[in-house]
Amino acid sequence: MFSSIYTECQLPASLRRLSFFGILMDTTNASAHSMATQPLQLPEKDEDVLIEEPAKVILFNDDVHTFDEVITQLIKALKCTSQHAESLAWEVHNNGKGVVYTGELTRCMEVSAILEEIQLMTQIEV
Question: Would the pTM of this model clear 0.70, i.e. be above it?
Answer without folding.
Answer: no
